[in-house]
């Protein structure tokens, strides 16, 4: 007996469900299922990887790839051959809408604003707020695709508060603004592109890129003045080598020294 298909989780049903070609009569219809719509939304609009999409929808990465290929073929058929496109049906369930959901969202529209305002209001006058691209306890290596930041409030060289913030599908261009709204002072990450670096600089957020390993240990190393990072980091996800030769924060005589973290100074 074949194993039943796993029900695909979607954040919400589409706002627009029917599309017609203009200028010609359309006698044929293409049906795009809601779970196919969700894969297209997450991968092509929100720019998630197949692996990230799979976690959001609670299915395997192989299934995501199959759904994506089917959905794109249907959309192409509609556009090229002038067929009506209808979004309906499919094997799916709506997001549970609570904190236990794998996506960490109560709803697509409200959760990001609610979570950001809660974190932003908690920052005290003498707190330095550090954000780390975060996955499974480690520094996530592709800034533009991070689903979650771990936020650390630090004071006098020690961590006083920790929590996580979901990015809710925000892409490269929006993440600097996302962090600015959280009142983040400093970002620790792995690979990051030049455009995102410029956006962070415009937002007044200090960057320590090219960092790997445990997120908590990276923050402790930064506070101690000995974080190993790469001042010339580039995101290898975009075909650039983001590893570099490394740079030790606090390594006198071996490179630049980054001091005065609590004073808001930049690395020289």
- The ordered H/E elements are EEEHHHEEHEEEEHEHEHEE
Uncertain spans: 98-102, 104-114, 237-268
Residue-averaged pLDDT, rounded?
A: 79
Q: Find the structural class using helix and strand composition.
A: alpha/beta
Residues in β-strands, percent = 15-25%
The radius of gyration over CA amounts to 22 Å
Shape: elongated
First-to-last CA distance? 65 Å
Q: How many helices?
A: 7
What does this structure look like?
- With 268 residues, the chain is α/β, with parallel strands linked by helices.
- The strands form four sheets. Strands 6, 7, 8, 9, 10 and 11 form a six-stranded mixed beta sheet that branches.
- Strand 8 and strand 9 form a beta hairpin.
- The longest helix is centred in the first third of the chain and has 21 residues.
- The N and C termini lie far apart (65 Å).
């Amino acid at each position: 007996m074949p194993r039943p298909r796993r029900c695909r989780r979607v954040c919400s049903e589409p706002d627009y469900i029917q599309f017609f070609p203009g200028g010609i009569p359309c006698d044929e219809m293409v049906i795009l299922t809601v779970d196919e719509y969700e894969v297209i939304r997450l991968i092509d609009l929100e720019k998630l990887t197949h692996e990230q999409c799979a976690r959001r929808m609670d299915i395997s990465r192989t299934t995501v790839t199959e759904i994506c290929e089917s959905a794109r073929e249907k959309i192409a058929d509609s556009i090229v051959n002038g067929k009506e496109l209808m979004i309906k049906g499919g094997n799916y369930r709506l997001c549970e809408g609570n904190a236990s959901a794998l996506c960490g969202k109560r709803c697509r529209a409200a959760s990001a604003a609610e979570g950001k305002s809660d974190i932003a209001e908690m920052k005290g006058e003498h707190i330095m707020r550090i954000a780390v691209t975060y996955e499974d306890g480690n520094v996530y290596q592709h800034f533009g695709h991070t689903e979650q930041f771990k936020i650390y409030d630090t004071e006098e060289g020690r961590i006083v508060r920790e929590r996580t913030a979901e990015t809710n599908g925000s892409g490269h261009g929006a993440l600097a603004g996302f962090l600015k709204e959280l009142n983040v002072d400093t970002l620790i990450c792995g690979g990051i592109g030049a455009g995102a670096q410029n956006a962070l600089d415009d937002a007044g957020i200090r960057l320590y890129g090219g960092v790997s390993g445990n997120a908590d240990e990276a923050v402790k190393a930064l506070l101690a003045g000995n974080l190993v990072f790469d001042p010339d980091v580039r995101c290898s996800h975009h075909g650039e080598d983001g590893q570099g030769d490394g740079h030790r924060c606090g390594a006198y005589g071996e490179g630049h020294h980054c001091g005065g973290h609590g004073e808001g100074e930049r690395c020289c």
